[in-house]
Write a structure and sequence with these properties.
The chain contains 5 helices and 13 strands. It is an alpha+beta fold. The structure holds zinc ion (2 copies).
Length: 233
């Protein structure tokens, strides 16, 4: 797992972190590691957020997504509507390696909305809080439900981006997979910054660890029908 290349990348990131936080840097530009935590409603699942300067070099990006995948996932969970903001799902983009699972591994529950989908949605099996989404595989980033970010961690990012769903797909598929990105609400800027975030993540070797701790070989359940069955038991 830890190839020589990964070790070199880890050393490079550490070096950048210490450089950016050192006293050689004038205080107004100095960057410190920012910390916080992610908790589900019942407290069974806890992640620590440790975001070093090398992650902050490329800002977090966030979006309120109105696609029926994101909204449908929330609404399939009991009290799911309380996790929506302006009827959309407010997601913040983190490097997986900046999330450390502290407790609740056995409570981590997952669902793919489609067979072979690269996106695995994560929720607490106990209280059914939607935690976010992991982009399975090589992608270094994951999406975290903004309402669960606690404590001193202040997310520094773009103004909220609103992604809308395409009505044309209504009725033909259980969910609408594509979202429309509008110029007037920073959509293209969001995509541009997200692309840079992914590229920087790869260069700096930030894909290790993460939301599901790279446990990508297990069989993830597929579809919200199964999810509803689980949550009404
Ligand atoms: Zn919980
Ligand atoms: Zn969405």
């Amino acid at each position: 797992m830890d190839s020589p290349r990964n070790n070199e990348q880890a050393r490079l990131s550490k070096w950048i972190d210490s450089l950016l936080s050192s006293s050689l840097v004038p205080s107004r530009w100095r960057m410190t590691t920012r910390t916080g935590s992610l908790l589900c409603d019942c407290g069974s699942i806890q992640y620590d957020l440790v975001v070093p300067p090398s992650s902050q070099l490329v800002e977090q990006t966030n979006a309120v997504c109105h696609c029926r995948d994101c909204v449908g996932f929330c609404l399939a969970l009991p009290n799911g509507d309380s996790y929506l903001q302006n009827n959309g799902s407010f997601m913040v983009n983190f490097y997986k390696s900046d999330l450390q699972l502290v407790k609740g591994r056995d409570k981590l529950s997952t669902v793919r909305l489609y067979p072979h989908s690269a996106i695995v949605r994560i929720y607490c099996g106990e209280c059914h809080t939607p935690l976010g989404a992991d982009l399975v595989g090589a992608a270094p980033i994951c999406l975290v439900n903004e309402t669960l970010i606690h404590e001193t961690y202040s997310v520094r990012f773009l103004p909220s981006v609103v992604l809308g769903y395409k009505d044309a797909l209504h009725g033909t598929k259980p969910y609408a997979r594509s979202v429309s990105v509008k110029w007037r609400n920073y959509g293209p800027l969001f995509l541009w910054k997200s692309i840079w975030r992914v590229i920087w993540g790869w260069l700096a070797g930030k894909s290790r660890g993460g939301f599901l701790e790279n446990d990508y070989n297990r069989d993830f359940p597929v579809g919200l029908d199964g999810l509803k069955k689980v949550t009404t038991q």
